[in-house]
TrEMBL record:
Keywords: FAD, Flavoprotein, Glycoprotein, Oxidoreductase, Signal. It comes from Schizophyllum amplum. Pfam families: GMC_oxred_C, GMC_oxred_N. Transmembrane segments: none annotated. This is Glucose-methanol-choline oxidoreductase N-terminal domain-containing protein.
Length: 607
């Protein structure tokens, strides 16, 4: 939680503070035990843990320090976050390199995407985390990752009023003493609408059941959402505040470290190596361009710039596909073609219905509060495809080879063997473990009920690479959302069902018109075209520095070390090789804490 000025001054007088500055002289030509590229969710978590162990740490963050920016700190003001405050807003590109017309949100300030994200908090499942180990990553499974998800969490249990409006927590699953606050808002959002969604969803997704808690699931689930927020009643105004990685691990009074230096508004351009390809430090410069400086790492350089920026740093450093590097005059120190491939996110869109006049001002049903996704359903293939489920599952399993070949042909996976391994593991989760394959969010905005949805375990893959020899230039991000047939069939089914939900009996008393962008009896081709036209990324980017054996398309090994190099690791969400069925924060916090333990030699499970 934030310090008051007085408290900060008192603390400063008795303990050393973390240095947070945009003055490059703290880093230029200086030496640290560890240098971390990126002050986002994972970077700040690892920095906190290493500096607590007495190591000197430099974090270099490209964006500003938005500690005092209201839209970043007040959870319900989130809609107003500007690019300058904290958002890269990259252009999404098509295969031909042209802009697709939508932008990719990604946090660009201290706290990274945890400073702008939707704050939804629930855990992934055991089979998904165990799949990491089965893919050849010793020491990475549910039993090793789940304790970190609990450790980071400070769950505030709901009160009676919140419970009456749908909040619930399976208490044994959560943590209560971590630095990241997790709670329901006080008061709950749109409780009447939540009841309608909970009643209607099982009618269109047969078999779906109401759960205690989104984290309490073997596979599918439906429940009210808790967020990484806390209800700040200190000013008497009941402000709902964001609990970002910056608040949890950097600004908090009890997390101050004299061993930690955080330089913001500066971009890491590349990693420097000695002749044995051992990382020795970084090159960096002011984010808007200017003179290039260096800093040295006595122990290691750690890349935490996220799924969309860690691969470009590797490529600029000479680690990547030699053919791509050559185009930009970069010598390949390590020819590692997997860098920047296997990029993945979930393609989201929505369906709406107009609320009737009698309910136009009913704030229990529709409101204008920006806390996204008050009720969430995670739907598995039986619930989505009904009696076609078995046939769809069999066809999916049979199609893995063809999918793998298509991904190699599109340049999104490094080899057929790699794609088969990853896609095969994903198909197992879908068919055998009945993991959810679609997320359906129950929302409202002024005058409309809106359901937002996306396929959860997509097979579509894209890529991110450098696109210029200018070290300050943005990367080229080619998402290729919905380039896979199975993803398209999931998307069409979930869209049709979500649309039909507004014509079910529970919604009848409150809806005047269900909006349909398509004519009655529209074909699947029409639905596909509509979905592709309206889709955007759900912002759960993963995969572009995958943790896999090198021969299976890995960029890093199970100790997160970049293949072919020494003293260089990737510690961010880009190491996850497959999509997951929760939102990504709990897994990202787990990766970061485990990374710190591996670096400090405390985690023996990976040896
Ligand atoms: C709009 C949005 C909504 C989301 N909603 C949710 C949600 O509701 N729930 C959930 O669980 N997850 C959500 N996520 C995802 C979650 O926030 C991310 O998965 C997580 O933050 C990833 O952590 P990271 O450390 O890998 O990357 P980030 O947190 O993005 O951190 C990367 C940091 O590196 C910095 N950086 C990049 N390039 C450089 C460079 N060259 N030099 C220096 N610094 C650099 C960036 O500015 C950024 O601060 C959302 C994400 C977004 C963008």
């Amino acid at each position: 939680m934030r310090r008051s000025a007085v408290a900060a001054a008192l603390v400063a007088s008795v303990v050393a503070q973390t240095t947070i500055t945009d003055d490059a002289s703290v880093a230029s030509s200086k030496s640290f035990d560890y240098i971390i590229a990126g002050g986002g969710l994972t970077g700040l978590t690892v920095a906190n843990k290493l500096s607590a162990a007495g190591k000197t740490v430099l974090v270099v963050e490209a964006g500003p320090n938005s500690e005092d920016v209201t839209s970043v700190n007040v959870a319900t003001a989130r809609g107003g976050i500007t690019a300058a405050e904290c958002n890269w807003k990259y252009d999404a590109l098509g295969d031909d390199g042209s802009a697709l017309g939508w932008q990719i949100d990604s946090g660009r300030c201290l706290g990274g995407s945890s400073s702008i994200n939707g704050m939804v908090w629930f855990h992934p499942t055991k089979p998904e985390m165990d799949a990491l180990k089965n893919l050849g990553n010793k020491g990475w499974d549910w039993n090793s990752l789940y304790p970190y998800m609990k450790a980071v969490e400070h769950n505030h249990l709901p009160n009676d009023a919140q419970r009456a409006d749908g909040a619930n927590v399976d208490q044994g699953l959560h943590g209560y003493s971590g630095p990241v606050n997790v709670s329901f808002p006080d008061a709950m959002r749109i409780p009447d609408a939540q009841r309608l969604y909970k009643a209607a969803m099982p009618l269109v997704f047969e078999g779906l059941k109401l759960s205690d808690d989104l984290s309490d699931r073997d596979n599918s689930a439906m429940a009210s959402t808790s967020w990484t927020i806390w209800n700040d009643e200190s000013s008497g105004t009941d402000v709902v505040r964001r609990s970002s990685a910056a608040h949890a691990f950097l600004y908090a009074e009890d997390q101050q470290r004299s061993t930690l230096t955080v330089l913001y508004n500066h971009k890491v351009l590349s990693v420097t190596f000695d002749s044995k390809i051992k990382a020795t430090g970084i090159q960096f410069g002011p984010s808007d361009g200017g003179s290039i400086m260096t800093a040295s790492a006595k122990k290691e350089v750690l890349l935490a710039s996220g799924s969309l920026q860690t691969p470009p740093i590797l490529e600029r450093s000479g680690v990547g596909d030699a053919d791509i590097l050559e185009q930009f005059g970069i010598d390949a120190l390590v020819d590692l073609p997997a860098v920047g491939r296997n990029l993945q996110d979930q393609p989201g869109t929505g369906a709406s219905a107009l609320v009737n006049d009698a309910n136009a001002t009913n704030t229990e049903l529709i409101d204008n509060i920006n806390l996204f996704a008050p009720v969430i359903s995670l739907v598995n293939m039986d619930e989505l495809f009904g009696s076609n489920s078995s046939a769809k599952g069999a066809a999916l399993t049979k199609s893995i080879n063809a999918k793998a070949q298509a991904a190699v042909d599109a340049g999104t996976m490094v080899s057929k063997k790699s794609a088969q391994a990853v896609f095969g593991a994903q198909a197992n989760l879908i068919v055998r473990n009945k993991m959810p394959i679609a997320e359906v969010v129950g929302e409202s905005y002024p005058s409309v009920m809106t359901s937002v949805f996306w396929p959860l375990l997509p097979f579509s893959r894209g890529h991110v690479h450098i696109a210029s020899s200018d070290p300050f230039a943005s990367p080229a991000i080619t998402p290729r959302l919905l380039s896979d047939d199975f993803d398209v069939s999931v998307a069409i089914s979930v869209a049709k069902k979500a649309q039909s939900m507004f014509t079910t009996e529970p919604f009848a008393p409150v809806i005047s018109t269900a909006y349909v962008d398509l004519p009655e009896g529209a074909s699947d081709d029409d639905w596909e075209a509509w979905y592709k036209k309206t889709a955007y990324a759900a912002s759960h980017w993963l995969g572009s520095s995958s943790m896999l054996p090198r021969e299976y398309g890995g960029v890093v090994n199970n100790k997160l070390q970049v293949y072919g190099t020494k003293n260089l690791r990737v510690i961010d969400a880009s190491i996850l090789p497959m999509p997951i069925t929760s939102h990504t924060m709990p897994a990202a916090y787990a990766i970061a804490q485990k990374a710190a333990d591996i670096i400090l030699g405390k985690d023996k499970s990976v040896n």
